[in-house]
Amino acid sequence: MFALYITHPQVRIDPDVPVPRWGLSELGAERARKAAGSSWAKRLGRIVSSDETKAIETAEILAKASGIRIDIVHGMHENDRSATGFLPPPEFEAAADQFFARPEESFKGWERALDAQARIVSAVEAVLATHDRQAPVAFVGHGGVGTLLKCHLQGRPIARDRDQPAGGGNLYAFSLADRRLTCDWTPIEDWQG
User: What is the pLDDT of residues 164-180, one digit of tens each?
Assistant: First the structure.
């Protein structure tokens, strides 16, 4: 049986709103609705979401397809970047490069990649410890911590080249039995399950 790690698709960027409270853009919501029409979305037995608005909105759209409620897990949030606040896209990309390149260091007060990885791995493993292995499960979250989880699942060092394609709204799949990746980053509306 499979587990999915799903990143929220495109968001409404608003420098005046804290990043964790950003919601999906029209394009992001449309992509989530298209994914919800997939056969895999209808088979989900559990959906676990980060407590950030954009992840919750994505999870709620998917939950309608499978007729289940979502569980919100606070430890699944994106890496804490509140020390710098909003960064324009070019500055953010440069900062993210540093975050992944030096996982044992904090970029200007950001949560260290090593700490964010330990947090997301712990949150996912805690859910899976009580999850029915016969039911497909989706974890809905964010690109940064999703990449850190993927690095852990693959037993590989933290590196940005393992990050999702730009724009968000991607997923990877792994086996519930042995936690091995069975599908690398794929747009949510394209995965066939």
Answer: 998 899 999 999 999 99
Long-range contacts for 127-132 (Cβ within 8 Å, ≥24 apart)? 127/48, 127/71, 127/73, 128/3, 128/176, 131/46, 131/176, 132/45
H-state helical runs in 37-168: 39-43, 53-66, 89-101, 113-129, 143-154
Contact indicator for 103, 112 with CB cutoff of 8 Å: yes
Query: pLDDT digit string (tens) for 87-112?
Result: 998 999 999 999 999 999 999 999 99
Measure the CA–CA gap between 138 and 80, rounded to whole angstroms. 22
What residues contact 128, with CB distance under 8 A and at least 6 apart? Answer: 3, 137, 176
Q: Please give the distance of CA 49 from its chain centroid, rounded to a whole number.
A: 9
Spatial neighbors of 29 by CB under 8 A, at least 6 apart, are 9, 57, 61
